[in-house]
Model the fold of this input.
Amino acid sequence: MEFMDVSKMPFSKEVAEHYGYTALANKRGMWPVQPGVLQNLALLPQALDENQKIRIIFDYDPNFHRALVQVFEDEAAGTGAAERK
Done:
């Protein structure tokens, strides 16, 4: 599994820290929290291969400025968790 080091990326670091991560998946999105943001989840199948195992972790806080989605490919259930503090 691949993670992005967020220590040198202030915006990503702020989002990661808010949701309790020290690193994020290389495949990720940080969506502005605004009306309809949850509808973005419906767009994920367009970017995914349904012939692969995948794990998606979605973090949302209506009182924070970004939602976070992380995609792990070829991951069995129970694995692929982003690195938490």
About this structure: The CA atoms of residues 48 and 81 lie 18 Å apart. The longest strand covers residues 66-73.
